[in-house]
Amino acid sequence: MNTEIVKKLLKDWRVALLILLVIGSLVGIYLAPPNPEKGLEGNLQFGLDLEGGSWLQLEFQSVVVGYSTDGSVDDLVANLRTALDTEVIPIDENHLEIRKNVQRADLEPIFAESGASIVTYQQGVSAYTADEVKRILNEKVNALGMQDARINLLTPTGSGFPQYVRIELAGVDMATAQEIVGKQGVFEIRIQTAGNETQHVLYGDQITSVSVPQKDPYTQEWGVGFTLSETGAQAFREAALRYGAVDNPAAHNLIMLLDNKTVYSAPLSSDLATQLRTAPVRSLSATTGTGDAGLESAMALEIHLRAGALPVKVDIVGSGSVPAALGEQFKMTVAIAGLLALLTVGVVVYYRYREPAIVLSMVAINLSEIIILLGIARFAIQLDLATIAGLIAVMGTGIDQLVIITDEVLHEGRVPSPNLYMKRYGRALGIIALAAATVVIAMLPLALMDLSTLRGFAIITILGVLVGILVTRPAYGKIIMTILSR
User: Fold this and answer.
1) How confident is the model at residue 74, as a pLDDT?
2) Distance, CA of 375 to CA of 385 (rounded, Å)
3) Which helix (H) or strand (E) holds 470?
4) Rounded to two decimals, what is the model's pTM?
5) What pLDDT does 480 receive?
6) Rounded to an integer, what distance in angstroms lies between the CA atom of residue 440 and that of residue 370?
7) Nearest 5°: phi and psi at 453?
8) Other Cβ atoms within 10 Å of 351 Cβ, number
9) d(Cα 288, Cα 359) in Å, to the nearest integer?
10) Low-confidence ranges of the chain (pLDDT < 50)
11) Per-residue pLDDT tens over the stretch 378-394
């Protein structure tokens, strides 16, 4: 291609759009932000298969009971709460969620005493509780910067209630994974009264929002700001007044505990004590020190403040890990497989058309499509073996579609006229669009299902189809017309 032809192509909006998206994707991968120590990986996020890491499967320690009764449901719930010393949540008019792993034989006498009987008994939790657990776990792992950690609810066949939750954490060792998500957290704030004595102030459910760790520009101390509900702020003020914290802040530490383990302890500031004399204070801040140690403490405290307590106890019933070295080996294997696939495509296309310009155009379009998909994935999804398989599938189907366009518009090796070209090109696009619609319809259920092994594959495949139809196929149509019209 001479310079004039190249300039003409660059002025076409379809080719210009393709180039713009490729450049934008490369910027997102390598320059937003710059990450030179990662090399060719740039800012791409890799999943458990390629990065190494750990997975945990947690079982909800709860049962869902279907019941019938002629008496008062409120009395039944109250009796169950008293007898079992746990939370009992009505799900609907016929089901109760009992947040304790209790056997059916132990429940039947309690139901009988309340004039009720058990109709169905299943281990698990309601959909609302399962979603709440998933949200809290998401907050815990996201606070550590783990983009797109896999958290999936699992429901046994024949059951209508989730019984397990599976968490996959890339780049995290097993001990850390268990520490983050394997425990039920009960967050509590207490105030020091006299000596080592403390009194309860409030629980984590009174914390309505938490900010990210910030460093004070004057003191250089790291801290975490958080906001209390009106009820929590009133309880905090009453405790500070009752136990003398507003008069002598240095002698009355504010103590935060997670599972009865102190995670933070510091006296009230003099400014806060002064404010509490006159009114409740909802916005508070906990300082954790200076330097890297202060930052790490602030990040850990943020997790505790954000997550609070899981609504139901969970036990670890399964776990596993992928060593980082094995993940690196998988990356190398995948890179070699992708390169071989691209080279093989080039050889086959050259064997068919015997035209270097067509081969280079197809390979360039195919490669640009992969770069655009990686640019999208950098912000949207982790790359694991399933998503890489999706990229290779997109590469194969992409070449198929480019061959369809080339064969349709090729007329004795040349394009006889623009009108004939547009007619043949439109017919090729119609075939491709119909095939693409079929792929999207087939992949959509998998993309919407919460199945960790298939969802990434489906999402990448759908994105590949859309990028192909909207961007790369129109650009290739213009390029192939220019090549065949020489």
Assistant:
1) 87
2) 17
3) none
4) 0.62
5) 85
6) 18
7) -85, -15
8) 9
9) 61
10) 184
11) 888 888 888 888 998 89
